[in-house]
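hey team, just a heads up i'm posting the complex here instead of the shared drive bc the drive is being weird again. everything in one block, sequence lines first with there labels, then the predicted structure for the whole assembly after. its two chains so it's a bit long, scroll down
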Amino acid sequence: MSRPPALQLIRPSAEAPSTGSAERSLLVRSAQAGDVRAFAALVDMYYARCLRFALHMLSNRSDAEEAVQDTFIRVYRALPSYVEQESFEPWLFRILANRCRSAGSRERRRAEFVEFGEVPDRASEHRHDDAIAWREEIALALATLPTEQREAFLLRHVEDLSYDDMSAATGAGVSALKMRVKRACDALRSWLTEERNGRRD
Amino acid sequence: MDDETDETITRIAAALRQLPPVDAAHKAQVLVAVAAERERAREARVRAARRWRLAGSIGVAAAAALVLVVWRRDAGAGRTAARTTGVVAQTTPASVGAPSPAPETTTQLAARDAAGVAPLPVQLVLHAPAAHRVSVVGDFNGWDTHANTLSRDAASGLWSATVALRPGRHVYAFIVDDSIWMRDPRMPQSRDADFGRPGSVLLVGHP
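-- predicted structure starts here --
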């Protein structure tokens, strides 16, 4: 098994643009007041992140797109009931995670792996192959996790939510979420180690 | 229990954090659907206002009739019949304001409720040159296989039908030769297709 690519191959520009909480609060309040442009700005701000989460949860592009679109429509409908004491991101991810859970039965998931991200043009062909292989390995490993562990891992390590926010997003207790994340990390380490050592077919 | 991050987890997370490319059309579809929601909500508010106005008129008319009954009892029916008719006739329009049109009947309101937002013509097309019959089923026609049959253009092999759809989200599929259920390959697939079969999603915006 080839060695995974160096971290610097992953372009920082692929990260979500950082947005101040004040700006976000203003947009949410404006959207609640009926400003469609503010809601469009929220869609712009979060669509890619939501799609990333849905792709990792559902492993299927069209399912993920539909889950995200449905999520934003549900968010719009639910905006009048949103109270600002609650953080927007956990609230958004709660709706998205619920939508993904309802869509994500394993039996219906097709054997289709997520392919996205870019490799810099300067990367050698060898490193390009490595990057793709590494992402496929991760996608495979992630797909082996139980839904709750995958969800917890993604919220914690990919979406960078705090455990309190994760609790708000999932409805699970903090200690249960920590356990899920730990088990997910253990399983991913184990799976990838075995994969690298060629112990799997 | 704190997070135990090591190099492997850091690398995994870094790879997973890459954002996928986003098709601007998909974001636009969300906004189209939201615009349709707004329009539906606005129409609902208008209908509710009309209902309140009608209810107010009926209430005032009923109160006037009650006054009339009491007055007739006191003054004698035969002597005051002409005047009381005048009371009711003057009270009802006064309650809604003189320039207002006559209030809609409950039947008319129910018909407007059922109609909701005006439907728009939408053409559905399927390329199936070998098919003998194609129909479309969806939430807009109660999944009735006989409700909307497509017409065939012999030269191109295209089947098409124009259906009237209200703004909003619709799920539909084609039935080919009365036996093959297939979604519209040009449109996004729906997860919630009825009957557990694949369907396509169509978002109709408000004009």
